[in-house]
Amino acid sequence: MKFGIHLSVFTENWADDLEQYILKSKEIGYDGVEIPLMDPFGLDIKRLIKILEDNQILCTCGTGLSDQTDISSEDLVVRRNGINHLKKCIDICQQLSCDVLGGVLYSPWGKLYSRKDSEVRIECAIECLQEVGLYAKEKGVILALESINRYETYMLNTIQDGLDFIKRVGSEYVKIHFDTYHGNIEEKSIPDAIRSAKGEIYHVHFSENDRGIPGSGSIQWTKIKDALIDINYDRWVVLECFVKPDCETGTGTNTWRKIEVNADKTAQEGLKFMKDLFGLDHQLTKEQCKELLKRISRMFDERQDELSMYDSVIGDGDHGITMAKGAKAAIDKINQTENFEASELFKLYGKTLISTLGGAIGPLYGSIFIELSLVMKNKINVGLVEFATGFDQALNKVIELGGAKPGDKTMVDSMVPTVYSLLQAVAEQKNIVQAFEEAKANAIIGAYNTIPMIAKRGRSRYLQEKAIGYQDAGATSFAYMIEQIYIYLLEVSQ
Ligand code: ADP
Ligand code: MG
């Protein structure tokens, strides 16, 4: 799931300069911005590409048709204009590396006829979209048609209208764009409507029943979220609120009164609400992943005497020193890198542990970070699912490499309860902070439970029964690492 914001939340005129709003969206924490292509031929695309690239932010695009670009017009020249408009928008999407063009792409806003008398117009729109669909396929851009309320169009009001319509178009590149504001007016049951369009919804707009901040009105958000999860919707959720009257964008959307305090507050609270709703409220950005790795290294440094002490009783007394040395080398490497994705950061951390630690512990500990990096690949932000899956794979890898079983008095004994706890939290859709709070507690109990165990792996196995009564160093350091992740997540969430 990626979260975007329609830039018209900020703009007062459709043609306002977008740069400051793109920067602001990035700062607030959005993954992307939705760019309204109102005048595709007048847009300075090179500049837009530069702004997006410089700020490392993605985008989606939306457009609409006017009387001059109406593809449902009975006038051939107007239809050709409309086709050219849509093709130009598709070109722009491709240039901006955006794979979806959403909006009312079939008829101009506010054009109202009787449906019964409009078969010719509907036919015209379908024919044009068949042609534009071929072009969209060539360029790898999906056209997502937005059903909107009855006061703004007669053609597509419900998701069912959209499904019937795209079936007639018959292009795999012409799909549906769902908007909660319109759905709230037109659908008997929004969740049922969403479920009926599995595999066809390619774009989603979130807006409250009064176009304000989601969660501030009467829309039943949890049911909508459940339906989107049921249909495996994993694409963009874009905040599209219109909260300001007395300006071009307000008037254009019939916003006659002040709906929210201001656009900034709308953008901030909107994102927080959407992330909370999907349980993704504490996903870590790559910058936060970097900070997390720093905290882990610092913990190994601060805890080195204690960890070596555990190892000195039943091992050779070097676990703390070894881990602190490796963790320092790893974070030094990370500090030398710039613009690395989360996945690459974890990979570099793991590889450096392997190369500096050596022995058995190097590959074992290193593989934990490498397995985490594998599940984080191509993810913009990482959250509970990535950590849970990553630690699960890491556990399998440690068992595969070291041959230890649960109960052998090794780090496996704190990894098993951690993984169990995290996977359980994913199944129960818990928030990541709560998930790690429980995982940390279970990891510490797991380490503690090694006290009465007889060692079967590592150096302490030579001690046989003599190791009974002492806590395993590796199990303890792993538990401390999970605790550190919890502490950082808690800090980020506040
Ligand atoms: P070394 O034993 O080479 O001196 P450390 O002292 O750094 O390495 O690490 C010791 C810890 O490594 C042990 O407390 C144990 O948790 C973990 N360990 C050792 N062997 C294995 C293994 N085969 N599988 C899992 N963990 C192991
Ligand atoms: Mg040792």
Fraction of residues in β-strands = 5-15%
Percentage of residues in helical conformation: 40-55%
Q: Look at the helices and sheets and give the structural class.
A: alpha/beta
Biggest sheet strand line-up:
1-2-3-4-5-6-7-8
Topology pattern, helix = H, strand = E: EHEHEHEHEHEHHEHEHHHHHHHHHHH
* Top-tier CATH class of the largest domain: Alpha Beta
CATH topology of the largest domain: TIM Barrel
End-to-end C-alpha gap: 22 Å
Morphology: elongated
CATH architecture of the largest domain: Alpha-Beta Barrel
Fourth CATH level, the homologous superfamily of the largest domain:
Divalent-metal-dependent TIM barrel enzymes
User: Into how many domains do the coordinates divide?
Assistant: 2
Q: Give a quick account of the main beta sheet: strands, pairing sense, barrel closure.
A: 8 strands, parallel, barrel
Helical stretch count? 19
Give every kind of bound small molecule, once each: adenosine-5'-diphosphate, magnesium ion
* Rg over alpha carbons: 27 Å
Q: Compute the average pLDDT.
A: 94
Query: Low-confidence stretches at least 5 residues in length (pLDDT < 50)?
Result: none
**What's the number of extended β-strand segments?**
8
How would you describe this protein?
- The chain has 494 residues and is of the alpha/beta class.
- It contains 19 helices and eight strands.
- It has an eight-stranded parallel β-barrel, surrounded by six helices.
- Helix 3 packs parallel to helix 4 and helix 15 runs antiparallel to helix 16.
- The mean pLDDT is 94.
- The site of magnesium ion (MG) has 6 residues, from loops.
